[in-house]
Fold these 4 entries.
Entry 1:
Amino acid sequence: MLTEMPATHHTPFGTPRSRRDMLLSAGAGFGGLVLAHLLPNSVLSGPTPNPQPLSSKTPHVLPRAKSIIFLFMEGGPSHLDTFDPKPLLKELSGKPMPPTFKPVILAMGENNSPIMDSPRKWKQHGDGGLWVSDWLPHTATCADDLCVIRSCWTNGLNHSGGVCQMNTGSTIGGRPSLGAWVTYGLGTENENLPAFVVMEDNPGSVINGPRNWSAGFMPAGYQGTPLASGPEPIRFLASPKGTTDGEQQLKLDLLKQLNQKHAAERAGQSELEARIASYELAFRMQAEAPDAVDLKDETAETQALYGLDQKETQGFGRMCLLSRRLVERGVRFVQLYSGAGSKWDAHSGIEKNHGGLCKAVDQPIAALLKDLKRRGLLNDTLVIWGGEFGRTPMSEKGDGRDHNPYGFTMWVAGGGIRGGRTVGTTDDIGLHAVEDRLHVHDLHATFLRVLGVDHMRLSYLNKGRPERPTINEGSPCEKVISG
């Protein structure tokens, strides 16, 4: 029998002694158990250790989409030759930069190169009358699904800084990539596959390399997982011949014990924990991943749709088809690099350069949009297209265009976003964004909002400082999301 004591009396450790206090504390404790269960699975949680950090979490607001496929044209595609026609370029072609526009380019230095016209043929497509050039005839058939953002701008003047900022929000390496923030905030819907996958059309060539899909100061488990192009996207996944599942599990258990012992002496280093998790994920993937990356069960019609039967489109077409299969199976973020190694960087010979690259990606991208749509996946998937910057209206080397971070085009499709329209404008020669200007931080905030994530509420405590995906800047563009 408990001894009755004054309700205010507690032991030095704060344990209640009255029956009333005991019951009250116990009741509150049950609420704490519920709270403890909910917090780790909330997008609001900080870096509290979670035995399953990639488990699916609750968004801040009602999401429009579950996954992102980011089609990255590395090197900087020319908006002036794809989605942002400028009739004035024809009138000014071969002439010096008009004085009206010179103040705009002071940050680029004095540029006396003449204006260069775009020889593209332009047509309006779809019910929305979206302008698309003849370089992208297949993409043009999806015009009513595209929301073209013509007013993007960034701080990255060169490729390294531009690619880094478009991926991480900063021109300087060391911060988590957008894909890492998404997987940290939302987790994955399939713990038997990586949450964040990266593919390059020329593996190992993308500028900055793994920095683009790094987890930065967050645990390494949130970084992207590269998949190789070709018939074996995931190398060394299959068990050695003659090894049973039981033997493989015993090896994995022993390796885990050794790694945990090693990690216990090196607290604060997330790389080893990520390596342990990767071994466990690889074991689970042996059952599901082979099916995810095996295209043999795709119909001949689907493979032809993506251009797998043509040399020019086969490589990027395979990547696009794999990305559809991955988001179909719950992968949260897929990023595809076209022109890995800054191949879209057309300082000269833009006709040959962009002509070949557009041919390589045009049909596969259109196929991806159509395939997602017919399978009912487009509303659940936000597809993003763009590079680190655009190109200048002035010529370089007579037949090329220089970097232009001051005004360029990206587009989004799916995720419940209304297509067949444009948002924002550049000036009359396409040099500078002037209306509804969207910085990289605004773009990232917009992409996150489509997934139901508030970029200012998602934070990670790093060295006592709360870090956020857009570095405490940017705002979601409501014209893109709800327009």
Entry 2:
Amino acid sequence: MENIRVDLGANSYDICIGSGLLRTGNMLLEKIQGRRVFVVSNQVVADHYLDRVRQQLKGVDVDVHLMPDGEQFKTLQTLEAIIGDLLAKGHNRSTTIVALGGGVVGDTAGYAAATYQRGVPFIQVPTTLLSQVDSSVGGKTAVNHELGKNMIGAFYQPKGVYIDTDTLLTLPERELSAGLAEIIKHGVLADSEYFDLIEKDIGQLRQKDEGALISAIKGSCQIKASVVAEDERESGKRALLNFGHTFAHAIETGMGYGQWLHGEAVGAGMVMAADLSARLGRCSLDDSQRIKALVKSAGLPIAGPAEVSTEAMLAFMAKDKKATDEGLRFVLIAGGIGKTDIVQDVPVSVLRQTLTAGLRLCE
């Protein structure tokens, strides 16, 4: 088992990574503070892994809430249903919420934990590659609004993250590729050697090779844990983790949540961010093309959907959380793969060129 510490003082916790973590032992039980647990999952995940979680939690009372499956259900209505179930079943501040599922489950259950009776403990048990390398780590919890992704949420750290790589064996190919987007992102923004490794191992990763997956998950979690430890609430360096996301969130909002997987939108968003970086002279054309090639090799889109126009993309970007009073902010490459920074004053004319080129790729 690999163990990574997220060092946040009183809010510190461990990320545990390994094969078969849910089959043996009682790691989850060790983190339960009270006598009651409330598991949030969906039917698809529960059919595979709920019994294993129950085995881990012998000795405490376990209630289960199954939310609908899909990004389109990451809403205030779903949050209200979870909180209503917590109340109906008499849960109090000593209850621990366990998020068993992908990013939608983790984000929604985490936000429920942050708000229920002003905050109860929660544990992340991510079952998709994307949630294992990104959304389960760092304490971002949220639901979507029809005008913008993740607009309603809170920073709220889990008590632990348990990543059983065996859960990836049942993961559909499309969702595996979506997770690879975040792995690629971590290499682009912070570690060129890690990017080189992903390039080398991309075939093995798509084949779900256990060694390659554990290595990639560990590398991504180390990068994210380091960034989060330095900037828990995204007042500075943590914003770099949004490489490609300004484009991605506009795609997801424009298409309607659930049409594109988050990782698919991030894949296209990274290609656009790399293109914009090259147009502004912040990286070479070779670096931009290399990122595009790896995104394509991961089985991801290399451009946004033609259904969302350039003007619509610009409008959705203006509502993005990363926008400030001074305008749009972009995370762009700063000299080469493995180095990024935040750029405020991107000329709209150049941004239009990137968006237009991306839409043409889709035709």
Entry 3:
Amino acid sequence: MENTIDIPQQKTLTRKDFESDQMVRWCPGCGDYAILSAMTNALPQMGIPRENFVFVSGIGCASRFPYYLNTYGFHTIHGRGPAIATGVKLANPELSVWEIQGDGDALAIGGNHFIHALRRNIDINIVLFNNEIYGLTKGQYSPTSPQGLVTKSTPYGSIERPFHAAELVIGAQGTFYARTVDANPKLMTDIFVQAVKHTGTSLVEVLQNCVIFNDGAHAAVTEKATRDDNQIVLKHGQPMLFGKDNSKGIRLNGLKLEVVTLGENGITEQDILVHDAENDDPTLHLMLVRMAPPHFPMALGVIRKVKAITYEQALKAEREKISAKSQYHSVDDLLKSGEVWEIK
């Protein structure tokens, strides 16, 4: 009689498997709820064991994220999330590491950690909650607040020009950048799944609404009455069409982008730019991320996705190269090298 061994089948994970037992504590109507919902929908689709996920956060409203997922997680210190996430990934490259930051956490005190994680191309995923305000500390202006914004710390309006996260990604030689809005959880879920498939640092910027301190910051892009004309969802290999019934498009006119309407002045779909997220040259990607209402639609979707060696791959190759040439292969070898004597 032949002996057989029953190998248990791996359980198919669902959204419920990733929901924690913690009470979710954000202000009613906060966009963070939509981001959490999209993430719990996306995680089962990634095909990764639940115990291999790690979520890291800093300080701010967004930093509560690890508590609300039934995965491993670290709630760390202000702005230092990317450093902790880097350490986690280098210690165990098999883990899927997600780093959660608000715009203040990432681009103010955490600015250097943020850009150097992108530059090094560590295989982690950063989700940037951008509500253009400091929410947890009750409504001060942030590095992404627009000029003129009146807040508790800028009672006469902010005089500073804001950071644009997408430009920082490209300037830091980032390999993956996507943008979405909290009002479109389906798109957000899809982007999270695409981000985890990318080898290298992925940055997903979520335009998120703070109903208490900066309500309507992204209304031009998200409101039903204006969104058709003020947002364009880019897809690799497809023409850049938008508007009601896809009646408008983006065309390259010389060295500038312009909005055109199909059927006017002989414009056809053949005149419309085809999105190439995988072009290593960032010139067009930079032009796309700078588009904004009222003259252009806001570009959403995966805008840049290129290949480059990761920090972990480079580190492993360096270790192997050094080890192959070294006469010492352990600490014991080193201690017994050179002059050695024994005291009796």
Entry 4:
Amino acid sequence: MSNTIPNRKAFTDTLVDLATKDPSIFVVTSDARGSVTLEKFADTLPGQFVEVGIAEQNEIGIAAGLASFGKRVFACAPACFLSTRSLEQVKVDVVYSQNPVRIIGISGGISYGALGYSHQSLHDFAVMRTFADLAVLCPADRFQTEAITRWLAEHDVAAYVRMGRGPVPDVYANVQESFTFGKANRLSEGSDATIIANGETVHHALEAAKILGTQGIGVRVLDMPTIKPIDRDAILSAAVETGLIITVEEHSIFGGMGSAVAEIVSQEHPVPIRIIGIPDEIPIGGSSAELFDHYGLTGDAIASEVMTLIKKFKR
């Protein structure tokens, strides 16, 4: 694994390629051309680009209007604003009005780092997954980001996609193997426990599995890029076959992927579950890496927690 381009750059590079061949693809953005890395799109395809200024509510409304006329619209802005300011427009203009807008939240989770709580989006999975027929996705690396972007361009679906800001280590070797809508990817085998992760935590989950492997602990790792609709079969298989599930995500411990997993397991095949994420507090300031370390989202910390849980519940 090696650091490469950020997922947001993989997204915009792919979108330029797609939109050059398909004039129905439009981008709508707030004052976020630089944050989303949309400069090339705006310069290359100005007739398919709409910038509304700092007005995310208007952005979603305009995107929904374009979608109602058959345009394949990507509404792009920082995740922290799309998942707060424009929630009513997402609910009414996109979901209720059945306009297939692809809502792309950039710099999600804690990736804005030192800018603090106002710029963090630790609630977005929880909110967005409650809206009917709105897909919720979170890519793990550049290859999966490209695959998701191409899938969204080919399907008339309302979706919320959250990605980070900085470079992410490669999890996959190519685009083709990285993504199937609604399905988890099994990246590591083991019967002692299952770690389910998404987004930038997938790399750390794999590191945890490697560390545990050196101690004779076999851990299944699932990448869950589609948070809604979530892969129920993969979750239940993990519960039945490994008997212990740990979820890891760059999100509040309330309402995110961990809650979605617990909802399924608790009703279908109860096993111990540990949800690793950001606790019920206003996060500390610092870089993304510093916050990952502080809140136990790194490979070492995840491995330590898994070992503790195995000793508690299985030995």
